[in-house]
Amino acid sequence: MIKLDSIKNQAVEIALELRGHDLLEQALLLEAQIDLLDKSESLLEALREIEGLCHVKAFGDLYLESFEGWDWPSKVSKLGQTCKKYSLKISKNT
Q1: Could you read off the pLDDT of 71-91 as tens digits, one per residue?
Q2: What share of the chain is helix, strand, coil (3-state, %, to 5)?
Q3: What are the sequence ranges of the domains in the chain?
C-alpha cells in the first residue's frame, strides 16, 4: 500500500539532490508541490504536478547534464509512478 509520507520523503530527497547540484529553480518547483501535499483540497493536483515534473522531459533528462549513473532517472521515475498510482487510488475513492 502506498503511503503519502513515502511520496513526501522521496520528493524531499529529490529536491535536496536538485539543490545540491545548484538546480534551484527545479528544486523550488518540486518543493512548492510538496507543500501542497498536506492540504486535502490540493493533494490530487499536487500529485499530478509532481508526476509531470518526473517526466523524462522535465527532471528525467537532468542526469544527462548534472547527475552521473542511473540512480537519478530511476529515482525520478519511481516517484512519478508512485504519484500516479496514489492519484488513481484517490480518484477511484471520490
Answers
A1: 778 888 899 999 999 999 988
A2: 80, 0, 20
A3: 4-93
The long-range contacts involving 20-27, CB below 8 angstroms and separated by at least 24 positions, are: 21/62, 21/66, 21/67, 23/62, 23/66, 26/53, 26/58, 26/59, 26/62
Cell of 48: 499530478
Q: Which residue has the cell 498536506?
A: 38
Distances (CA, A) of 19 to 5, 12, 37, 68, 91: 21, 10, 20, 16, 32
Question: In angstroms, how far is the first alpha carbon of the chain from the final one?
Answer: 18
User: What pTM was computed for the model?
Assistant: 0.86
C-alpha dihedral, 35 to 57 to 81 to 51, nearest 10° = 30
Cell triple for 56: 523524462
Whether 3 contacts 87, CB under 8 Å: no
